[in-house]
Inverse folding.
């Protein structure tokens, strides 16, 4: 594994250049503001009628339409939602993308799965912070940084890696460490992690545990606390010091019960299912399904969202969270 730090990068590849940041959501606002504060010339590309236009202007940033921003830029960082990127690329980015410039991403999905095919005359790289945008900004302002992943897909100039490192340094990534990867590795591990563990796996594990207790006659409120509310306490321990800190911090009863019963829940059958999910990511079948879902207007996602809203787990949770004013919902930066 190769890791770069501040001493390995400098901002000179960005000197005299303009960076267009497309999007001003969670990641977009952090990238744009950190770049500006690092002395880089920044223009934000947005839809004229979008709510973010005024936000970006209020932050003291130059704002243009997407096409205008790309035409001005030496580096274009695409921070729009994955599903919107291909259409925006064809309509506004490609016609304004000049030879010898660079096209950058914070996630490899559309490049890796061929939804966006840049010309051979531009550099294509990725700088992907491994945290939400509000933390990328907060840590930067505190003099710290967020670990990033870096990959070069296309090196037309012969200097793409140095340019990507300069970008990572400008947003604070090299303060914490920038790990070398590829577009394929970042994309496939990211999709698998979301599906099998972070979003899909955890949410279904919580729901299954909650419903098992309720079906056995326990109060839904107690089941909610045991299977969802306390999850944050456990995850925070893992985040701070890995599994070892978590096992050390819980009771001996919890440690023994977890170590002996956990493998019965996540058994060989579950591991085989995880392998099948990874296979679907790697062979592109999930990507094709997701592209088709978007083209159809998101009928399945819309139905699934409604199903989740109507679960007893969510309804009980809403009532209990109203009793806990200290639980604040994260501000929507999108």
């Amino acid at each position: 594994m190769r890791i770069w730090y501040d001493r390995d990068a400098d901002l000179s590849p960005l000197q005299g250049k303009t960076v267009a940041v497309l999007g001003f959501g969670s990641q977009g606002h952090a990238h744009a503001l950190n770049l500006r504060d690092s002395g880089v010339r920044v223009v934000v590309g947005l839809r004229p009628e979008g709510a973010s236009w005024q936000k970006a202007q209020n932050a003291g940033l130059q704002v243009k339409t997407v096409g205008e921003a790309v035409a001005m830029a030496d580096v274009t960082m695409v921070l729009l939602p994955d599903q919107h990127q291909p259409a925006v690329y064809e309509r506004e980015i490609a016609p304004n993308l000049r030879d010898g410039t660079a096209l950058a991403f914070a996630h490899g999905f559309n490049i890796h799965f061929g939804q966006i095919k840049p010309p051979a005359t531009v550099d294509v790289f990725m700088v992907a912070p491994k945290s939400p945008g509000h933390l990328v900004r907060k840590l930067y302002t505190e003099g710290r940084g967020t670990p990033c992943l870096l990959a070069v897909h296309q090196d037309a100039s012969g200097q793409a890696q140095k340019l990507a490192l300069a970008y990572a340094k400008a947003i604070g990534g090299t303060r914490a460490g920038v790990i070398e990867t590829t577009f394929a590795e970042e994309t496939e591990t990211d999709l698998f992690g979301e599906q099998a563990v972070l979003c899909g796996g955890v949410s279904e594990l919580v729901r299954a545990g909650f419903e098992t207790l309720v079906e056995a006659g326990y109060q839904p409120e107690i089941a909610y606390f045991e299977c969802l509310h306390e999850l944050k306490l456990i995850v925070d321990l893992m985040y701070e010091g890995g599994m070892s800190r978590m096992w050390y911090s819980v009771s001996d009863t919890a440690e023994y019960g977890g170590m002996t019963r956990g493998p019965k829940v996540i058994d060989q059958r579950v591991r085989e299912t995880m392998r099948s999910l990874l296979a679907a990511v790697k062979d592109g079948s999930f990507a094709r399904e997701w592209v088709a879902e978007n083209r159809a207007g998101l009928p399945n996602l819309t139905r699934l969202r409604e199903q989740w809203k109507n679960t007893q787990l969510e309804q009980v949770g809403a009532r209990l969270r109203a009793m806990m004013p200290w639980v604040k919902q994260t501000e929507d930066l999108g």
In short: The first helix runs from residue 26 to 37.
